[in-house]
Write a structure and sequence with these properties.
It is a single chain. By secondary structure, the chain is mostly helical. The chain has two domains: about 10-105, no CATH class; about 125-180, no CATH class. The chain has helices at about 10-15, 20-30, 45-55, 60-70, 70-75, 90-100, 100-115, 145-150, 165-180. Helix 2 crosses helix 3 (about 45-55) and helix 3 (about 45-55) packs across helix 6 (about 90-100). It is elongated. The two termini are about 40 Å apart.
């Protein structure tokens, strides 16, 4: 059983709020200088609203922007001052476009740094799962013989020549290293 509160509850948002690195996020997205409209929300506020889409049962930006006006605890997590001035769907999509993988990696490295520094150096290996090594679940996009009403003579079946999962490759490498200690 997990010690964290249930997903979507305000207790979970209160627990996680302290771990969002607002200053780092604001520094990753420099403020626009010069002419033009000033930003209504800081990058940290928009990032927190994007987190709400992951941490709450509302998974679309349209529903999220509607629910923000009604839910005070969600606005408090997102550091939004009042219910009358809220980010709209366009702002969230634009911010998500600016949130590149390199910036997410910097945020992730910042969050993991205390844990990695406190880790025991006697640990021999650390395996981090990377989604690029996992086979894609694209069965829904394949042409089905049943739908076409005929035989499809191309491609592979689901059971043949699929790339070996990363975990299995790591296990094989580990057993090979243990079996040959002199190498």
């Amino acid at each position: 059983m997990s010690n964290l509160p249930v997903t979507g509850t305000s207790d979970l948002l209160d627990c996680l709020s302290a771990f969002v690195p607002d200053q780092l996020i604001n520094s990753l997205f420099p403020a626009h200088r010069g002419r033009g409209r000033r930003a209504l929300f800081s990058p940290a506020q928009l990032f927190r609203v994007l987190l709400l889409a992951l941490l709450t049962p509302v998974h679309s930006f349209n529903l999220l922007t509607n629910a923000l006006g009604e839910n005070r605890r969600w606005r408090r997590f997102a550091l939004l001052r009042n219910g009358s001035c809220l980010p709209d769907v366009r702002m969230l999509h634009e911010f998500r476009q600016k949130l590149r993988p390199s910036k997410l990696r910097q945020i992730n490295a910042h969050l993991l740094r205390p844990w990695i520094e406190s880790a025991d150096p006697a640990w021999k290996t650390v395996a981090i799962m990377d989604a690029t090594d996992l086979p894609a679940a694209t069965n829904t996009y394949k042409k089905n013989k049943w739908l076409l009403g005929q035989e499809c003579g191309f491609g592979r079946t689901d059971s043949e020549k699929r790339p070996e999962p990363l975990v299995r490759r790591l296990q094989k490498a580990h057993t090979a290293a243990v079996a040959a200690p002199g190498i």
